[in-house]
């Protein structure tokens, strides 16, 4: 049975799952941000992990640009895992991603985080490394201490995944990512179109667009508690009930 321990690095406190099958001790795994010297190593890893061929400019960006949250897990000087995310304004998302948040968050101040990649060297998988990297990202964006320039303005973390990548889908669903949408022919891999899913993790008060059920539930809860955000609703309801009773 897996146990848990606390991991502390760069001010981030995250929970790590320790498996009996671990190929290394997580106490010996160090976290650091990518740098330009990592480019060739990162490119070699991504080519091994992912079916998508990234351009040279992508590797240059993630290893040098401050636009990206590019964190590596290092064991004995070797990168054994990494997570790359981009923090961007919600209003600048592509059309297929704009619906991950309610319209209430459609402002220039709302940010979202897009996970471009999360991978672990095969021999070190199922040892908690991927969970560690994801937890550090989540704690950085939603932890008790605000980290400028984001300062809890990130309302969602989302990603795209192949519909056939069952291992990744199970990993994210286990960590409370929600399936948001189906993206037909989203990927082009070796000249063939592949379908994808969008998964979203909500934080800092963010939530998906509401349906009729959500609005009915909200109004009922507001009325039951004596008005909530709409005190006039309770007054009107009480007046209507009084008139009906006397009739």
TrEMBL record:
Top-level taxonomic group: Eukaryota
Catalytic reaction(s) noted: L-lysyl-[protein] + acetyl-CoA = N(6)-acetyl-L-lysyl-[protein] + CoA + H(+)
Cited Pfam families: Acetyltransf_1 (PF00583)
CDD domains noted in UniProt: NAT_SF (cd04301)
E.C. numbers: 2.3.1.48
Domain N-acetyltransferase: 29-215
Cellular component annotations (GO), alphabetically ordered: Golgi membrane
Keyword match Transferase: yes
Name of the protein in question: histone acetyltransferase
GO MF annotations, alphabetized: histone acetyltransferase activity; protein-N-terminal amino-acid acetyltransferase activity
Organism: Parnassius apollo
Keywords: Acyltransferase, Chromatin regulator, Transferase
